[in-house]
Design brief:
35% of the residues lie in helices and 28% in strands. By secondary structure, it is of the alpha+beta class. It has one domain (13-95): Outer Surface Protein A, domain 3, CATH 3.90.930. The strands form two sheets. It has a three-stranded antiparallel sheet. It has a three-stranded antiparallel sheet with strand order 2-3-4.
C-alpha cells in the first residue's frame, strides 16, 4: 500500500496491509512494517481496532463493537476510528475499501 492521504468514512471497510506484523504488549501493541522496517505503537483501543480490522466490518460496525468493550459513545468511537484509520492509511498500514472483503479470502 502506498502512503497517501485518505478520507475515511463510516461506510468504509478497513483492511490491514499484509506486510505489517502485530505484536501485543499487555494492553498496547506494536506494529512493524516488514518492508520498510518502521515501528508504530497503538494503545489498547487502537490495538483492539487493529485486531478487528479484517475488511469485513465497516467503520460504523467497528464503532459499535468498541462501544460494547470500552466506555465510549458511538459518535466518539466513529470519530476516533476515522482519525486513527486515516493516520494508519497515510503510513500505508491499512486501506479503506468501499465494499467489504469476502471473509473466505482472508
Amino acid at each position: 500500500m502506498d502512503r497517501k492521504d485518505t478520507m475515511i468514512q463510516k461506510g468504509h471497510y478497513l483492511v490491514k496491509d499484509s506486510e505489517v506484523l502485530f505484536t501485543s504488549m499487555g494492553e498496547d501493541a506494536v506494529l512493524l512494517h516488514v518492508q520498510r522496517g518502521d515501528y508504530y505503537s497503538l494503545n489498547k483501543v487502537g490495538a483492539r481496532l487493529w485486531v478487528m480490522a479484517d475488511g469485513t466490518k465497516s467503520v460504523e460496525d467497528l464503532a459499535v463493537m468498541l462501544t460494547q468493550e470500552f466506555d465510549i459513545s458511538q459518535e466518539q468511537a466513529e470519530k476516533d476510528i476515522i482519525e486513527l484509520a486515516e493516520q494508519l492509511a497515510k503510513e500505508g498500514l491499512v486501506e479503506a475499501l468501499e465494499t467489504p472483503m469476502d471473509p473466505a479470502t482472508d
